[in-house]
């Protein structure tokens, strides 16, 4: 009987220790939640190339899953993505590494492409579908 209790205790202990908490599946660290200037949009089928001065269009990513866009661009013909306002965002993490993409950024239900954050730059790349490359710089 003691052997059975010991085996049961050992089994419960090993199951408890082998479990982990996978709730933190965010592909970004806290430095992501900051103000970012949209500085460049290029690519697409027509070969668009737009450059914006830092601070003209600012995306403020908030920990509550919203991004506040402040768009002071006055060129109506320029592709600057979003008007000023609040939008929801989320990350889509895929099992596939097709086109070298493991994570996409979705803003206002629009997939903006493969998300890469390096130092003070975020790149959103949807060239795999003849889309754009969006470059954001820490504001």
What features would you highlight for this structure?
single chain; 139 residues; 8-stranded antiparallel beta barrel; 12% helix; 42% strand; globular
Largest sheet: 8 strands, antiparallel, barrel
**Strands, total number:** 9
Strand content: 35-45%
Helix content: 10-25%
Could you tell me the mean pLDDT? 83
**Low-confidence segments, ≥5 residues, pLDDT <50?**
4-24
How many helices in DSSP terms?
A: 1
Sheet with the most strands: spatial strand order: 1-3-4-5-6-7-8-9
Structural class: mainly beta
* Alpha-carbon distance between the two ends: 67 Å
Tell me, briefly, the overall form: globular
Radius of gyration: 21 Å
H/E order of the elements?
HEEEEEEEEE
Description:
- By secondary structure, the chain is mainly beta.
- 12% of the residues lie in helices and 42% in strands.
- The chain contains one helix and nine strands; from the N terminus they run αβββββββββ.
- The protein has one helix at 2-18; strands spanning 35-43, 48-51, 57-61, 66-71, 85-93, 103-107, 110-118, 121-125, 132-138.
- Strands 1-3-4-5-6-7-8-9 form an eight-stranded antiparallel beta barrel.
- The radius of gyration is 21 Å and the shape is globular.
């Amino acid at each position: 009987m003691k052997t059975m209790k010991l085996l049961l205790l050992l089994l419960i202990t090993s199951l408890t220790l082998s479990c982990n908490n996978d709730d933190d599946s965010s592909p970004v660290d806290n430095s992501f939640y900051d103000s970012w200037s949209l500085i460049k949009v290029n690519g697409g089928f027509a070969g668009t190339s737009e450059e914006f001065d830092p601070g003209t269009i600012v995306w403020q990513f908030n920990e509550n899953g919203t991004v506040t866009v402040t768009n002071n661009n006055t060129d109506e013909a320029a592709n600057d993505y979003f008007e000023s306002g609040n939008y929801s965002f989320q990350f889509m993490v895929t099992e596939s590494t097709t086109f070298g993409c493991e994570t996409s950024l979705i803003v206002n239900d629009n997939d903006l492409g493969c998300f890469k954050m390096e130092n003070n730059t975020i790149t959103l790349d949807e060239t795999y579908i003849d889309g754009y490359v969006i470059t954001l710089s820490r504001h």
